[in-house]
C-alpha cells in the first residue's frame, strides 16, 4: 500500500541576497529519492495556490521563488510537500513575507579601474533577472589605509560608475560599498570587503 509520508519540517521563507527562497528540512526515515513540490499564494488572492514549474518534483530542499512571484509588493507565503511514487505528504506552509519590505541585500562586488589621474569604481550586485529594474543604489566609501576619515559617495544607481580625481592622492587607498534599497524604510547591506590600491606611487 501507500507509505505514510510525514511532511518536511522547518519550512521557512527566507529573503536573502536579493532573492526570496523557500527552504525546508527532510525528515529522518524518508525513503531514498523522494522529491518535493512547492506552490505559493499571495495575500491579495488567498486560497489560490500558484504552481512553481521549476520547483515541481525537485530533489533539493530549497526553491528560489523570486522570479515566480506575480508582484513584489504583496505578501506571499509558500507551501511544500514530499512526494514518493504514489505517496505524498500533507502540505506545510511557511509564514508570509513580502519581497519589497523584507528583501535582504548582499554587499556589492566592486570593480576598480586605475587610470592616470583618476579612478573609476563601479558596483555590481548578483540580482535575479526579474528584479533588475527595481531602483537599486549603492554608497561608496574611500579612505586612506590606516585612517578613520572616510570620504562618502552616496546614492549612486547600480549601473553608475563613480569617477574620482586622484591627482592629489598619494599612497594606499581603500574602497568599500554597500547596496541600498528604498522600500518602506531605507534598507542597506553590510559594506563589502575593502579593495585597496596604491595611487601615484613613485617607485
Automatic annotation (TrEMBL):
Cellular component GO terms, alphabetical: plasma membrane
Gene3D superfamilies linked: Immunoglobulins (2.60.40.10)
InterPro entries linked: FN3_dom, FN3_sf, Ig-like_fold, Interferon/interleukin_rcp_dom, Type-II_Cytokine-TF_Rcpt
Domain of life of the native organism: Eukaryota
Pfam families tied to this protein: Interfer-bind, Tissue_fac
PROSITE patterns (UniProt xref): FN3
Annotated GO MF terms: cytokine receptor activity
Protein's name according to its UniProt entry: INLR1 protein
